[in-house]
């Protein structure tokens, strides 16, 4: 009896140990996945709607693990091979090219596991699903109401145009970007015009994601040792949001400096025409000869 009891205890201990190891490994993986996912936050959310890219909530229910791994490593390769789902996503999100992430399989699995930890149960009750969406919308409105002030807009504009320095010494946004405004300063043309960035990249969540977790190599390097503070991020968000709303039809491709250049060119052409019109049409000698002939 004691012998069987001892065997049972050993088996129970082994089972408990195995369960503990699995639980520990899963916890570590989830923690690693959370850290690795930070580089995805600029373009993707988990359950908070579309940003630059799709919402990744329940991604494992929509695609198998192999497809997700391949898409993360190189979405453009899948598009070029003609994968219909990859092409559909590419078209839906304005043909925005996703950066390749040739990560080890273990890292990608950790990211997927982290995303799956937010997986929703199969909700059959439409009323409950609608209530969840409504709650999310209310939270977004509350956040917007708390930050949408004239003071934040003014500070964000000053930060963007370089009249106010970032606390950690980062370069001003205007070095590379432009935002159309009647009283705004002409910005750089090295990167995309941000006048309509609010509506183009998913509202405040999209703007916040790119500011807090820069996905682009040049921006990432520029702010690696000069991170933008949370307060500065909020101020930039408000400035870009209001710039979009106040200039919904602005043709940002024709910037202020281009308009000034066109006006200057027209003035120059008019001056040349007047000078040319009043020019002497005959040589000086012609008039002397005509007088002598008389």
Tell me what the structure shows.
The protein is mostly helical. It is built from 14 helices and no strands. The chain is 61% helix and 0% strand. Helix 1 crosses helix 6 (105-116), helix 8 crosses helix 12 and helix 10 crosses helix 12. The relative contact order is 0.09. Mean pLDDT is 76; it is low at 13-30.
- Count of helical stretches: 14
Assign the structural class, choosing from mainly alpha, mainly beta, alpha/beta, alpha+beta, or little secondary structure: mainly alpha
Strand content: under 5%
Summarize the helix and strand pattern as letters: HHHHHHHHHHHHHH
- Helical fraction equals 55-70%
Rg over CA atoms, rounded to whole Å, is: 31 Å
Head-to-tail CA distance between termini:
150 Å
Task: State mean pLDDT (0 to 100 scale).
Answer: 76
> Uncertain regions: pLDDT < 50 for 5+ in a row?
13-30
Oligomer: single chain
Largest sheet: none
Using brief descriptors, characterize the structure shown.
294 residues, mainly alpha
In short:
The protein is built from 14 helices and no strands. The chain has 294 residues and is an all-alpha fold. The longest helix is centred in the first third of the chain and has 36 residues.
Layout: helices, strands, pairs:
Elements: H1 2-37, H2 59-62, H3 65-73, H4 75-80, H5 84-92, H6 105-116, H7 126-147, H8 150-161, H9 197-200, H10 203-212, H11 217-222, H12 230-246, H13 256-277, H14 284-293
